[in-house]
């Protein structure tokens, strides 16, 4: 009996280890491999001597492209100076398909806990008290350019621009100006011109947008990412506070439907944006011009008070969420990685481990008790 108990104790000790190893194996399987676009971006920017060419402005040395460094959340960006942040984009910025409707903004605010943060914008969603932004679901760069002016007039001192996903789709009902990356890049430049004209003091962080596992949209997205970096470099060389930020390393395993992040993915986007903001030269960040935006209860319109319950849920635009599209998403991801829809594999694997452990335990018990059972039957 003592031997049996010792064996069971060893199994109990090994189970957490086996589980931990198994989860690491699963996690490694779910993680995407390095995508070709990241290598392409690196090659192009190396060709232009990105690491050697730096822009000196206001005694600050500024890289032409910011990459994630993994900085710990909660470190103050510029304590004592208000950060009036305007998030500009499409459904990804809105937070489409996120469980709480806050998108990446809640995680970003939490990471900026040691700074005085105010979100600018005329649009609203989610459960945050100040969940404002300037983004529209299923819309293109041109649409945002035509509708962003009231938000820019709130004079943010930091603008987070993640836009262009809907311009890359083959669905002409969404990409109303066409899905040519060069044309989209030109329209993005027009939007940046408007931002500089209305907010000359603002720092404009232009995202090389996150990848997609939609094979019909991936090639255009990769070309567009490269053009975004070049556009930002052109503005930086003219002395404007425009910086490209690299989202091409964002894992497609954290996408819900090949386009929109899952909840974990939105939190990851918040970490990305926070990381980029901490790399802004401190003397670039100045107090925002004018008072903070007026909100509900202070004479503002009802449209700023939150989502209207009478309005049906929005169409998420490019590739709407399809909860039952597990096989489609996994196949679209190809060898670059499993999208986020491997729940069946994970569940089956874990159940296999459970049955395996039970079988081992049964075998041990049987081998130990069978001699006694044999003696008893002989009596």
UniProtKB/TrEMBL annotation:
Which parts of this chain are annotated as the region Disordered? 288-329
Q: Show the stretches that span the lipid bilayer.
A: 348-369
Pfam families, per database record: Lipase_GDSL_2
Q: Which residues form the SGNH hydrolase-type esterase domain?
A: 87-267
Which Gene3D superfamilies does the annotation name? SGNH hydrolase
CDD domains per UniProt: XynB_like (cd01833)
* Positions with biased composition (Polar residues): 316-329
Q: What is this protein's record name?
A: SGNH hydrolase
Please tell me the species this chain comes from: Eremomyces bilateralis CBS 781.70
């Amino acid at each position: 009996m003592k031997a049996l108990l010792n064996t069971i104790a060893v199994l109990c000790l090994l189970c957490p280890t086996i589980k931990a190893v198994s989860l690491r194996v699963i996690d490694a399987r779910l993680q995407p491999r390095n995508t070709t676009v990241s290598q392409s971006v690196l090659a192009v920017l190396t060709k232009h001597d990105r690491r050697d060419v730096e822009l000196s402005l206001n005694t600050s040395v500024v890289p032409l492209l910011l990459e994630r460094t993994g900085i710990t959340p909660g470190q103050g960006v510029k304590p004592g100076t208000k950060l009036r942040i305007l998030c500009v984009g499409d459904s990804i910025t809105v937070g489409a398909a996120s469980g709480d409707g806050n998108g990446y903004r809640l995680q970003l605010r939490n990471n900026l806990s040691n700074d005085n943060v105010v979100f600018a914008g005329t649009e609203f969603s989610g459960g945050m008290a100040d969940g404002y932004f300037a983004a529209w679901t299923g819309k293109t760069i041109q649409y945002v350019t035509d509708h962003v002016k009231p938000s820019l007039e709130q004079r943010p001192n930091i603008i987070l621009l993640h836009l262009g996903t809907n311009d890359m789709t083959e669905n002409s009902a969404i990409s109303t100006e066409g899905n040519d990356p060069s044309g989209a890049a030109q329209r993005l430049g027009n939007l940046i011109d408007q931002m500089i004209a209305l907010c000359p003091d603002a720092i404009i962080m232009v995202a090389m947008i996150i990848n997609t596992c939609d094979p019909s949209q991936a090639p255009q997205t990769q070309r567009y990412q490269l053009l975004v970096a070049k556009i930002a470099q052109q503005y930086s060389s003219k002395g404007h506070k425009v910086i490209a930020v690299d989202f091409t390393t964002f894992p497609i395993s954290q996408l819900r439907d090949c386009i929109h992040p899952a909840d974990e993915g939105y939190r990851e986007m918040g970490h990305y944006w926070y990381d980029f903001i901490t790399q802004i030269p401190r003397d670039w960040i100045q107090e925002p011009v004018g008072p903070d935006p007026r909100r509900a209860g202070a004479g503002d319109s009802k449209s700023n008070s939150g989502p209207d319950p009478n309005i049906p849920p929005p169409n998420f635009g490019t590739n709407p969420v399809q909860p039952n599209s597990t096989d489609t998403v996994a196949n679209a991801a190809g060898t670059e990685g499993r999208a986020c829809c491997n729940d069946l594999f994970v569940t089956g694997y874990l159940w296999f481990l459970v049955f395996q452990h039970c079988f081992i335990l049964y075998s041990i018990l049987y081998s130990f008790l069978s001699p006694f059972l044999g003696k008893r039957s002989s009596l």
